[in-house]
Amino acid sequence: MAAAERAALPLEDQVALARQEILAGDGRSAIKRLMALIEASTFTPVLHYWLSAAYGAAGDEQKQRETLRTAQAYHGLQVIKDGGGDLIQFQQDPAYAARMGDLFYSNKMVACASLAYGRAAAQPGASPQLMLSYGLSLQHQGLMEDAARVFEVIAETYPTASIHEFLLVACMYTEGGVERHAREARRWAARYAPPLDPASLSFANEPHADRRLRIGYVTMSFTGTQVRQFIRPVLESHDPEAVEIYLYSADGASEADLPAAKIQSIGKLSDADAAALIKADGIDVLVDLWGHAAGSRLPMFALKPAPVQVSWMNYVQTTGMTAMDYVIHCESIDQPGKQALFTEKVWMLGTVHSPFRPHVRMEPTPTPALRNGYITFGSFNNPCKLSDQTIQGWAGVLKASPGSKLILKYGYFADPILQNATCARFAAFGADPDRIEFRGHTADYLREYGDVDLALDPSPCPGGTTTWDALACGVPVLSLRGGDFYARIGLPCLYALGLDDLLAESWDDYVRLSRELTQDVAALDALRRRVRAAFDVSPVRDEIGFTRQLEETYRQMFQSWCSSRSAG
Hints:
Elements: H1 3-7, H2 11-23, H3 27-40, H4 45-57, H5 61-82, H6 87-92, H7 94-106, H8 110-121, H9 128-139, H10 144-157, H11 161-171, H12 177-192, E1 213-218, H13 228-237, E2 243-249, E3 262-265, H14 271-280, E4 285-288, H15 298-301, E5 308-311, E6 326-329, E7 345-348, H16 369-372, E8 376-379, H17 388-400, E9 405-409, H18 416-428, E10 436-439, E11 454-456, H19 465-472, E12 477-480, H20 491-496, E13 503-504, H21 507-519, H22 521-536, H23 543-567
Parallel strand pairs: 1-2, 1-4, 2-3, 4-5, 5-6, 6-7, 8-9, 8-11, 9-10, 11-12, 12-13
Helix pairs in contact: 2-3, 2-4, 3-4, 4-5, 4-18, 5-8, 5-18, 7-8, 7-9, 8-9, 9-10, 10-11, 11-12, 13-23, 17-21
């Protein structure tokens, strides 16, 4: 077909030609075609999405990002208009835009929400809550640098410990995340959790480690957050003759059906009052399970209510606080030079970081390729973990397995703008977006693991609970050995189950393994059975054995304090 004939084709056919060029890696030709179409139809979002992909295919990352933002802006205005919104009022009335943002956000349409919040936040006097919502709406799309910049502005404009912590969490998902987080955590601690003068500290705790120790756990909620599947097995397995357990949460009355322990509500207490309560309880070892996530009580730990203080479970990064004595890691995420990133002493516990008890477990299912006739890859991770290198790697996985599909499932994927933006990112690396299926929130999400042949772990921010859920259901998970300790948090899952053959050393190796693991469907089905059986007998299911090891760790930590006190 001659160039003149191609130029005369209808818009839909022209887009199809541009699509073919992009997927074939010819970004330059697609750019010329799409730019000509945009001159005649500026506000058509699909053209800008494909133009973004074309720039990506051509290697122009800056233009790719700029064009993708344009596509999202046009698409967002279209969504607002189609939903009955008043575009003139949206442009002129910040309060109206903020209400639109709240409406979108509550419906998990985070990309639409960020457009509305961005419009409202551009006006002077934006409230901290509006700015936080804006930052979170960006974060939930995976726009981590944008989110971090917003949180940085809020942290300087409204300097409070809780607001600054949003920046800390965002830093974890940015380029050079572990180093950036370590610096920011120290800055946070210097502002909001400076160490007390050691001479001012006094404890009435009996300095003998061979007695029954009082262990206190602190988190926002023991039953209403993701920590429940990890902490409950420990609470039920603690030896009551060896330790006495105290639980401190925001609302103790809401913590139903927990094992025997003294439960205290500290949600309405100031840091000083909460610390006084804990000190009055005579806690020997106080363990934070929540870290810098929203609802944190880390400033309370700065008041040193217990002689030994430990960070564990939900937060593997440093707290930045010298008042926190230890952070618990497992051996497989070790990395040379890691200790320098921590103000705490890193305590290596063993094979796994914690036990894991599936909340609900689906019945064993054959690998779905047996009934589908094609391979289905899947990831149920938060979009904030889908880094550019992850998108490129997974695009390679799709291209290496013709006819395969990829399920991306998370509540925020209900957003049509996020869907289109994600498709454009995959297309930039030559992966056909028609092979991607988006799924939002469902009540029985575990059952949907039955639709996945091979789960894909993102990097450098791997999955956590989602990885354990997949393995518990028998779904093999392909993971990448990352370059830092946080990028390696998927390793304990595989090592604990003896699944080292699912661990890739590089992205090229990752693509190669994905192809080899899925070429033989019968072998893939056998692997599925192997994964489930391995989970059942793995160290992560040895709840009592792990808890005894943890109790001994607490005892050694407390003994170290006793010895330092005697030496002093």
